[in-house]
Protein 1
Amino acid sequence: MPIQTAATPPHTITVSLFPPAQNSQENRQICPGDSTIVFGNYVSVAGAFQQISPNANGCDSTHTITVSLFPPAQNSQENRLICPGDSTLVFGNYVSVAGAFQQISPNTNGCDSTHTITVSLFPPAQNSQENRQICPGDSTLVFGNYVSAAGAFQQTIANTNGCDSTHTITVSLFPPAQNSQENRQICPGDSTLVFGNYVSVAGAFQQISPNTNGCDSTTP
């Protein structure tokens, strides 16, 4: 009769799966020209960047950082013309010289935009001069008023650009006219020619005539 041996009991290995690793996603927006640190490196361009790392169970999970760029900030420009000697308010300060002045400020996305104000000057206003000579005792109309004394009189007016120019009228007086005197004696009944007329009586006779400057002189 054969000898029977005991059967080897079976060894069972049961395999189970850890829960799937949970991948993660992160979105970032940056301004053009700025950068953000992604997995230890500074990134300034748009793109999707991934890093694989083990979770608590030792299974690989992927973390994705998607970087996108805000639209470029819209810079703005402003031109101003001012008269020489005038000024304009630029970013809180009065400016009287030509130049380009800039201010950087954040837009709604927090990205920097630049506003430039360019200041330029009108050509200098051309001042004008006028000289007048008058006879003593006469007068001349100066800026709406009659003037009989020597002097320099000015009026400021706006030119086509709105800038002030000055017109100066200088009034001077001719030297006083030199009056002349002549004495004559005649015999009673005689006569003498005085200013085109024969005179036979005593008296003082005068004639007013202009001198070389046009001013009146008297010959008695």
Protein 2
Amino acid sequence: MHQQNSFGAYDVMVAIAMNVMWGLNLIAVKMGVDLIEPLTAAWLRQLMVLVICLPALRIIDGKMRELLALGVLSGAAFYIVVNISMAVSTNVSALAIAGQLGAPFSLILAIIFLGERVHKYRIAGMALAFSGVVMLVFDPHAIDERLGLALTAVASFFWAICSLIQRRLVGVPVLTIYAWVGVMGTLILGPIAFAVEPEAFARIPHLPLSTFGWVLFSALGSTVIGQGAMSILLQRHPVSTVVPLTLPTPVISVIAASFWFGTRLTPVMIAGGMVVLMGVAIVTLRTARANEERAH
């Protein structure tokens, strides 16, 4: 049962940290992919996650099937697709917008597999989110990013499956979950990166510290601090209060990526992004409220 704490300065700071870490993560991932290679960068990230979370690694009775499945999907499959999408794209802001499809995909999976009842508002939200991403595809400045956008949509689908699995891991400590994600990611991505990118793999000992810094920011910032902050907020407040707090993340991503990489934010991209964000906001807010009502 949630303690009904009032939402104070501490919670605001935690929410800001979560959004900043997740929002800037996109830049760190893109830099890592460009400076190393997509699969080798993914492997290094998961290795760092494993090292950071290793003290929390333990067998959780009755939850190992879910933990291992999450490890394979979230630790390996998701990062293979995400990092390749980053490698083939220059307009990272467009990918940040397309990455928001995770929320509507999660809802679709919940309808199919959990028999979740959905009313007109959430259906409208899903339609908005998808139509906003479709707008990006027709933007002349994002035309070269179609492969990246398609891969980002696939990654969002994997993310949605992972979020469904994570629902079954309520009560398992965040660091334990990510220790297993790190284990599976490291074991799977290592041989694949070694086989596909042998030169990048051989260069690892000679990489400058700054390059490792980008990967470490991603591993520590996004996974440990970002997910940890989310976990703290969920322990202190109802889901319906916490979930909408993640909505600034894509805004931070789009603005930061545009600034850092000097990509143009076209009127179509801004409009598409706003449509996506509106759709995701509706899905997120209504889903959080529905979960809250079900809990009472």
Protein 3
Amino acid sequence: MSEGKTVVVSGGTYGIGRGIVLELARRGWNVVAFGLDGRQPGSAAEGGVEGTRQALAEAGLSGDVLEGDCSNAADVERAMAHAVSSFGRVDAAVNNAAIRPTGTILETDEATFDRVIAVNLKGQFLVCKAAIAHMKEAGGGAIVNIGSGAGWGKEGLLAYGASKGGVFALSSALAYDHLADRIRINVVVPGPQTASGMVEIMANQGPLPKVATASGRTNQPRDIANAVAFLLSEEAAQISGTVLDVGAFSHQGGVGQPRA
């Protein structure tokens, strides 16, 4: 358990992010989550701030849920300041916020590309920068960044894939830079078709291809949350700079991917 420790979660307002918020709260973390309430490109998620608050209440759990944009430094600082003022410190952070518009390079305009990079990559940079400053003062901490198999390249996901590829590089660099600070940085990759606002959009566009998983069932947000909780815990005290793939071999066309 993690009684008394505080975690800040970006994109904690729907799907995988909400699952992470609920699981960490269930395990005794003081949770401060933030995200945007309106629908974002490539996702069916909306109304998530109140939705996560209700989900916590229904589960008999507590957590603070704010509206904020991870690509806006002031919003990120506000979430961190809320965590410090409410609970005294920041011990961990989870970067889940992302948007997923589709398109090849010829179908992706500059504004869309800039926005995807701002949310999916710059957002993680801003949250990590703010969190690490607090963690260094506290003598250590842990960060989990949510990646994607698209970070190794996938058809029709040019901007999203580029941003998630950046997440791998960003996370590895952070792990090296802050090893001596006792701050661990790892990446969790949700397997294909993990229940989320993004997958809801895909399902609305047609039947989803069958994807193999180790368990034989569809990936759920709690599967990702369990991996995140482990990497934030003291049980993972020796783990930093790793990529943990949950639910399928989603990288480099592995066995979890549909075949042509």
